[in-house]
Design goal:
Layout: H1 3-12, H2 14-22, E1 35-37, E2 43-45, E3 50-51, H3 53-63, E4 70-76, E5 81-86, H4 87-103, E6 111-115, H5 120-132, E7 135-138, H6 145-155, E8 159-163, E9 165-168, E10 171-174, H7 176-185, E11 192-196, E12 210-212, H8 213-218, E13 228-229, E14 233-239, E15 247-252, H9 254-266, E16 275-278, H10 285-297, E17 301-305, H11 317-325, E18 329-332, H12 334-343, E19 360-363, H13 370-380, E20 384-386, E21 398-399, E22 416-417, E23 422-426, E24 439-444, E25 454-455, H14 459-467, E26 473-482, E27 488-493, E28 497-500, E29 503-506, H15 507-515, E30 520-530, E31 534-543, H16 551-565, E32 575-577, H17 591-598, H18 613-623
Bound molecules: coenzyme A (COA) and adenosine monophosphate.
The site of adenosine monophosphate has 20 residues, from strand 26 and strand 27.
Length: 624
């Protein structure tokens, strides 16, 4: 079947289409009903099916004869460690850890927060939760204690699983004090905290609450996977929205397993035995879908890499991993290769390694800028494939359908909609625009399997954010266009979300933090273009009349506040003090124009502006 025929079938007959894809996974009770429509136009996939996600990831591979094959290779240049686990070994460790959790009283439906660096125990903990039907919520290790506290209060976990430290370039970051502070700040108190001690930093335990990983599993008995309903949540993953409160994206078990398994063939053309490396972090959706679940659902060997593209130890790090583990498929964010290219523009490091095993390179998380695309193409001679997706969708909305037929790429485009995603570009009234015209990128309902089922604990927020803005559609929050050949170009967010080094952050949240400073009268934060990180946040701040703080001092305090509340990954380093902010007559800050000015782009003066002279004042700050 060609891509176009497969796509058409997925849109015309979604239930038959996905029913067939559902055959690719081992159900405990296969579904008879493929889709059930809900009142809000959204729906549940495979509502009467039962399965266990950990069973599909591990036990099913053992049943298929892959027990002795490597399931996971841990490669950690920051500690000088490499360790591999066969499917049998990983299953055994997961089953024991799951048994220990059950003995601790953690059962189906309980939430468990995992706040860990990129070590095998993070993967073991995720799969163990899935094995007993507990709902995991992984929090990226770069988030500060406050962010963790917000997630604890929202998910109300029974347990937190953590490690004594994470390791950044030449720097050990102690996690346990952050966990302790977060629990102190949160209103909800988890019953226990399970701590994996790493030799780089030993953490102390809180008596009566904390347990060391090794003691926790010492007398535990392995447990079998429990059946869960297709619609039961597998995980909650928080992602930035437009306010300080992150959204808990809820992923089901059944739709997720079917969609992720399908995507491994469609998008990545991966087969059992392939070595699959998603160079991301388990704290992000890429890590969930393509470090943990996708490769294991497919019988691949997945790489868990605790390091950076550069400085661990150099810009050859990625090529070294590809050679060492004979990686077949590599997936990362464009920013990673921008970092490599900056340090090694002629790709000299690449020639030190044999990357002959590598078949294709995939990029997502932010727009793949044409220079990075061209550089990779020129130096690797491999297919370089952009694909567009979001935490909410869990897999690619648009991709080059490599598993069916790889089509010609167009630089700057994420290629075609994946089967199941009826992508449309709409004007502000919700009417489709002509080919080549920019608008809001939306997906006509129903969404295919694998996408979010709701926002944790807040159906109204799910409805208002994603479904209400354009009735009958899922609003992606991205703007873009579809050209006359059907190629989709994603040009950037239309809301207050920015992408910093492939990390999704909320400018609205940064504004809330900055506005809480006693000397700040008003502020706005925009994402300004950055050569390496794609975007970096930039604050424009008005000082209160009578405030005595100097501009330098205020900037330093604001930078510290954002770092302290969100974490270092926010990369908030610059606050410009201004006299006025450009606004519409109704008082709305004109962020888009400010962004264009900051980026040195041409801008047109909006007709709704209150006082056009302010734009000139703002420009002065960027030219001086
Ligand atoms: N735990 C604690 N701190 C972390 C962290 C973690 N897991 N990850 C990042 N940080 C810290 C960094 O140490 C840095 O701190 P600093 O300001 O004190 O130096 C800060 O957060 C910013 O980190 P980062 O944006 O990663 O910048 P960097 O200069 O260290 O590295 C890149 C730049 C491009 C190499 C890096 O961002 C990268 O590899 N990006 C790929 C992103 C990715 O995989 N995204 C997932 C989507 S596919
Ligand atoms: P996240 O939820 O962290 O995966 O971030 C999702 C957002 O990243 C999307 O809404 C886009 O704005 C951006 N994004 C991801 N992949 C791409 C891509 N291939 N091209 C352009 N933008 C992308």
């Amino acid at each position: 079947m060609t891509y176009h025929a497969e796509f058409k079938r997925s849109i015309d007959q979604p239930e038959a289409f996905w029913g067939k894809q559902a055959d690719a996974i081992d159900w405990i009770q296969p579904p008879k009903i493929m889709w059930e429509k809900l009142d809000n136009g959204h729906g549940n996939w495979f509502p009467d099916g039962t399965l266990n996600t950990c069973d599909i990831a591990l036990d099913a591979n053992i049943r298929a004869g892959r027990g002795e094959q490597n399931a996971l290779i841990y490669d950690s240049p920051v500690t000088g460690t490499q360790q591999s686990f066969t499917y049998l070994e990983l299953r055994d460790q997961v089953a024991i850890f799951a048994g220990a959790m059950r003995a601790q009283g953690i059962t189906k439906g309980d939430r468990v927060i995992i706040y860990m660096p990129m070590i095998p125990q993070a993967v073991i903990a995720m799969l163990a939760c899935a094995r007993i039907g507990a709902i995991h919520s992984v929090v990226f290790g770069g988030f500060a204690a406050h962010e963790l506290a917000v997630r604890i209060d929202d998910a109300k976990p029974k347990a937190i699983i953590t490690a004594s430290c994470g390791i950044e370039v030449n720097r050990v970051i102690e996690y346990k004090p952050l966990v302790d502070d977060a629990i102190k700040e949160a209103e909800h108190k988890p019953e226990c905290c399970i701590l994996f001690q790493r030799p780089e930093a030993k953490a102390s335990l809180v008596a009566g609450r904390d347990l060391e990983w090794n003691a926790f599993v010492a007398n535990a008995e392995a447990v079998d996977p429990v059946p869960v309903k297709s619609t039961d949540p597998l995980y909650i993953l928080y992602t930035s929205g437009t306010t300080g409160k992150p959204k808990g994206v809820v992923r089901d078990n059944g739709g997720h397993a079917v969609a992720i398994r399908y995507s491994m063939s469609l998008v990545y053309d991966a087969s059992p035995g392939d070595v699959f490396w998603a160079a991301s972090d388990v704290g992000w959706v890429v890590g969930h879908s393509y470090i943990v679940y996708g490769p294991l659902f497919t019988g691949c060997t997945t790489i868990l890499y605790e390091g950076k593209p550069v400085r661990t130890p150099d810009a050859g790090a990625f090529w070294r991993v590809c050679e060492d583990h004979k990686v077949n498929i590599l997936f990362t964010a464009p920013t990673a290769f921008r970092a490599v290219r900056k340090e090694d523009p002629e790709a000299d490091q690449l020639h030190r390694y044999d990357i002959g095993s590598l078949k294709r390179i995939y990029l997502a998380g932010e727009r793949l800028d044409p220079p990075t695309y061209e550089w990779l193409r020129e130096h690797t001679s491999l297919p370089v494939l952009d694909h567009w997706w979001q935490t909410e969708t869990g897999w690619a909305i648009c991709c080059n359908p490599t598993g069916i037929d790889m089509v010609q790429t167009k630089p700057g485009s994420a290629t075609f909609p994946s089967p199941g995603f009826n992508v449309q570009v709409l004007d502000p009234e919700g009417i489709p625009v002509a080919a080549g015209e920019q608008g809001d990128v939306a997906i006509k309902l129903p969404l295919p399997p694998g996408c979010l089922s709701t926002v944790w604990g807040d159906d109204a927020r799910f409805q208002n954010t994603y479904l209400a803005p354009i009735p009958g559609y899922y609003s992606s929050g991205d703007g873009g266009y579809i050209d006359e050949d059907g190629y989709v170009f994603i040009m950037g967010r239309t809301d207050d979300v920015i992408n910093v080094a492939g990390h999704r952050l909320s400018t609205g949240e940064m504004e809330e933090i900055i506005a809480s400073h006693p000397a700040v009268a008003e502020c706005c934060v925009i994402g300004a273009n950055d050569e390496l990180k794609g975007q970096v946040p930039l604050g424009l701040v008005l000082i209160k009349d009578g405030a005595t703080i100097s501009e330098t001092e205020l900037e330093e305090e604001l930078v510290d506040m954002v770092r302290e509340r969100i974490g270092a990954i926010a990369c908030f380093r610059q606050a410009i003090i201004v006299d006025r902010l450009p606004k519409t007559r109704s008082g709305k800050i004109l962020r888009r124009v400010i962004r264009q000015i900051a980026d040195g782009q041409q801008y047109s003066v909006p007709s709704t502006i209150d006082d056009p002279a302010i734009l000139e004042e703002i420009s002065q700050h960027f030219t001086s």
